C-alpha cells in the first residue's frame, strides 16, 4: 500500500484530513489531499454561519465544493457541525429567542442540512463541544434557552431525516480519561438508555507538546466502545512551541503514532482525521501565536517525521 488511506484500510479504518475552501486553488495541495487520504471533513463549509446565513435561507455552495472533491477521490465525508456555540450567524446570536422559537429554528436547521447531504455524509458531528473542562454543561445559546435536552432533540431530529448517518457528539480535551470525558460517558450512557440515536463519540485530539500526552487514551476509547458507540478521532493535530526543533518533531512523531495506535487496537474506533494535513494551512498559528508545526506535512508539503511514524504504526 502506498498511501495512508490504503494502509488504514487494511485495518478496516479510514485515514483522513480536514480541508477548507480557500485551499482549493492550490493544485499541489489538492494532489496530496486526494491522493493520500480516504476521508475528509470540511473545516468550515458546513457550519451554521455558512450554511444558513439568513434565517431559512440555505447555502451549500462551499460544502458542495468539498463534496465534489471527495466524490471524485472516493473519500468518505464527515459532516461538521450542526449544533455548536461558535460560527453562528448574526441573525441567530443577535437577538433573544423563546424556547419554542429556538426549537423550531434548530430543528429546521438540522433537518434541512442533514436532508441535503443524506446518503453522502456518513458521520455527523451533531452537537459539538457541549461541555466545559470540569464536566458541566457549556452555557451556549442552546443550553441557556432549551436546557440540556437540546442534545437529545438534535440527535432525534437528525436521525429522523437520515437514519443511516452515524450521529456523533464531538469535543476537545476528551482524549484521555478526565472530568470532561466522564461527562460524555455519563451522558451517552443515559442517551442510550433513553433510546436516543447517539452512535458515536468524536475525540478531536488537538494536542500540544507542552501539556504532555493525555493519560489513558486507549482506555478512554475502549470505554466508549464498550458503551456501544463507535469512536472517531476527528481533528487530530499536535502543536509545538516554535521553532520546531528536530527533537520536538521526534516527540510529535511518537505522539501521532501513539494516538493512531490507540485507535487501531479498538475495533469500534473507525478512523482518524487530522485537522488538515500541512502546516501551510493549519489553524494553529492564528489562534496560538508562537505555536504551530502541528501537522504531518510541513509548509512546503514535505512529509515530516510524524508522517513516517504514522505510516509505520499503520504497518507501512
Ligand atoms: O470567512 C472569513 C473571511 O471572510 C475573512 O476574510 C477571514 C479573515 O480572517 O476570516 C474568515 O473566517 C475565518 C474562518 O475560519 C474561515 O476561514 C475565521 O476568522 C476563523 O476564526 C475561522 O477559524 C476556524 C475556527 O474553527 C473557528 O472557530 C478554523 O478555520 C477551523 O479550523 C476551526 O475548527 C475548529 C472546529 O470547527 C471545532 N474544533 C476546534 C477546531 C479548531 O478551532
Helix content: 40-55%
What is the CATH T-level topology? TIM Barrel
Total strands: 10
Hetero groups in this structure are:
ligand G3I
Morphology: globular
The percentage of residues in β strands lies in 15-25%
Mean pLDDT: 98
Spell the H/E element sequence.
Answer: HEHEHHEHHEHHEHEEHEHEHEH
**Structure class:** alpha/beta
Radius of gyration: 19 Å
* Main β-sheet description: 8 strands, parallel, barrel
Cα distance spanning the termini:
7 Å
Runs in which pLDDT lies below 50 for 5 or more consecutive residues are none
CATH architecture: Alpha-Beta Barrel
CATH class designation: Alpha Beta
Number of helical elements: 13
How many domain regions? 1
Family: Belongs to the glycosyl hydrolase 10 (cellulase F) family.
Active site: 235 (nucleophile)
Organism: Streptomyces litmocidini
Domain GH10: 1-313
Amino acid at each position: 500500500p502506498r498511501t495512508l488511506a490504503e494502509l488504514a484500510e487494511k485495518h478496516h479504518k479510514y485515514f483522513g484530513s480536514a480541508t477548507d475552501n480557500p485551499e482549493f486553488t492550490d493544485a499541489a495541495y489538492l494532489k496530496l489531499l486526494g491522493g493520500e487520504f480516504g476521508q475528509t471533513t470540511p473545516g468550515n463549509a458546513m457550519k451554521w454561519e455558512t450554511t444558513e446565513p439568513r434565517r431559512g435561507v440555505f447555502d451549500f455552495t462551499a460544502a458542495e465544493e468539498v463534496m465534489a472533491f471527495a466524490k471524485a477521490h472516493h473519500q468518505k465525508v464527515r459532516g461538521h457541525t450542526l449544533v455548536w456555540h461558535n460560527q453562528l450567524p448574526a441573525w441567530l446570536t443577535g437577538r433573544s429567542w423563546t424556547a419554542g422559537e429556538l426549537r423550531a429554528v434548530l430543528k429546521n436547521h438540522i433537518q434541512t442540512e442533514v436532508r441535503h447531504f443524506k446518503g453522502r455524509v456518513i458521520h455527523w458531528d451533531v452537537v459539538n463541544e457541549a461541555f466545559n473542562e470540569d464536566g458541566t454543561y457549556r452555557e451556549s445559546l442552546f443550553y441557556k434557552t432549551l436546557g440540556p435536552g437540546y442534545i437529545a432533540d438534535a440527535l432525534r431530529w437528525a436521525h429522523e431525516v437520515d437514519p443511516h448517518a452515524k450521529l456523533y457528539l464531538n469535543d476537545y480535551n476528551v482524549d484521555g480519561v478526565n472530568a470532561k470525558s466522564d461527562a460524555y460517558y455519563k451522558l451517552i450512557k443515559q442517551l442510550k438508555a433513553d433510546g436516543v440515536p447517539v452512535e458515536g463519540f468524536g475525540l478531536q485530539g488537538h494536542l500540544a507538546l507542552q501539556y504532555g500526552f493525555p493519560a489513558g487514551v486507549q482506555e478512554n476509547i475502549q470505554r466508549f466502545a464498550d458503551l456501544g458507540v463507535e469512536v472517531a478521532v476527528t481533528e487530530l493535530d499536535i502543536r509545538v512551541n516554535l521553532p520546531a526543533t528536530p527533537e520536538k518533531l521526534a516527540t510529535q512523531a511518537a505522539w501521532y503514532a501513539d494516538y493512531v495506535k490507540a485507535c487501531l487496537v479498538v475495533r469500534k474506533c473507525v478512523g482518524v482525521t487530522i485537522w488538515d494535513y500541512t502546516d501551510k494551512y493549519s489553524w494553529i498559528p492564528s489562534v496560538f501565536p508562537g505555536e504551530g508545526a502541528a501537522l504531518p506535512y510541513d509548509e512546503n508539503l514535505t512529509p515530516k517525521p510524524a508522517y513516517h511514524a504514522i505510516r509505520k504504526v499503520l504497518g507501512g
